[in-house]
Amino acid sequence: xxxxxxxxxxxxxxxxxxxxxxxxxxxxxxxxxxxxxxxxxxxxxxxxxxxxxxxxxxxxxxxxxxxxxxxxxxxxxxxxxxxxxxxxxxxxxxxxxxxxxxxxxxxxxxxxxxxxxxxxxxxxxxxxxxxxxxxxxxxxxxxxxxxxxxxxxxxxxxxxxxxxxxxxxxxxxxxxxxxxxxxxxxxxxxxxxxxxxxxxxxxxxxxxxxxxxxxxxxxxxxxxxxxxxxxxxxxxxxxxxxxxxxxxxxxxxxxxxxxxxxxxxxxxxxxxxxxxxxxxxxxxxxxxxxxxxxxxxxxxxxxxxxxxxxxxxxxxxxxxxxxxxxxxxxxxxxxxxxxxxxxxxxxxxxxxxxxxxxxxxxxxxxxxxxxxxxxx
Length: 376
Ligand SMILES: Cc1ncc(COP(=O)(O)O)c(C=O)c1O
Prior knowledge:
Elements: H1 14-23, H2 32-45, E1 49-53, H3 56-66, E2 74-78, H4 83-90, E3 95-99, H5 113-116, E4 121-124, H6 136-146, E5 149-153, E6 161-162, E7 165-166, E8 173-177, E9 190-194, H7 200-207, H8 213-217, H9 237-247, H10 250-274, E10 286-287, E11 294-296, H11 300-312, H12 328-332, H13 341-349, E12 350-352, H14 361-373
Bound molecules: pyridoxal-5'-phosphate.
Pyridoxal-5'-phosphate binds near residues 81, 85, 153 and 156.
């Protein structure tokens, strides 16, 4: 491909910091650069505790362990999301309840939430699609009224805001992804933002293989041992060094991504509307994270034809998310075709255009020209 869907790039002092971790002999986890990442994330988002993890998937698994999700508990997730949003809770034996999405933002439809709650419901996991906030005031009110935990899957929404407040600060916990396709990356990585301080101590234990090693390193206990269930979710400092180099220049990264998003929008929105093609909807009370730009083609056939057409021009565009309730495993969990009609329809029609930190205007012009040459 001349223009890939995603391309990784250095945005600052990544290599210098990685070299430092090796020369000072700190390549395991929770050392200088992990601590710098924790401090910066806590400072930006005001989280009570931020913990970098091996992935967002693992941060979600950590949240499920922290909530002590048990077989038979029900967890409500949007059907239109990445598999990890559901899998983390299914792994603990939870029954996954698939919610449909809003037709405008493609986020969990908060108007349907109440009807999905039963006496077994333990948690709801809103995912901020494309970094546009879910209706967190309504979701929070309903969750509070029913005593449910809210875990925000904020893999897309880092630096987005809802009614002026950072995404990731509404739930008792939120997860971030630093996978290579995300705004800020270290290849593979994630973080758990903890907003309820009662969860901190156990989070540290679960993340450190079920041991109190974090307390030991802080000098709070004289030896560490097995104190509970846990796994290995600590990020290597080699990756934390890469991550910190990106995090410390986040305003520059975000401002460039804003430029890329606005450029697509300025050149494609009117054209799209004239052809019956949809563009992202960002309500006025949401500040998006500039994670992706997508088009909603009139049909599945038109979407597939556009992807093929762009491919023939050396441009890789991609569809996004087979709705989980329609996936082979989702069906085994009870998902039925027709039960989340908006997810099904949008998923058939959606195409994501290339979007990465080093995307330049020349390449963007080429993408825009190719899209506009496509005959529907
Ligand atoms: C919404 C959502 N949640 C979770 C994940 C999992 O992230 P990771 O690859 O860091 O495990 C992704 C990955 O793209 C995602 O899109």
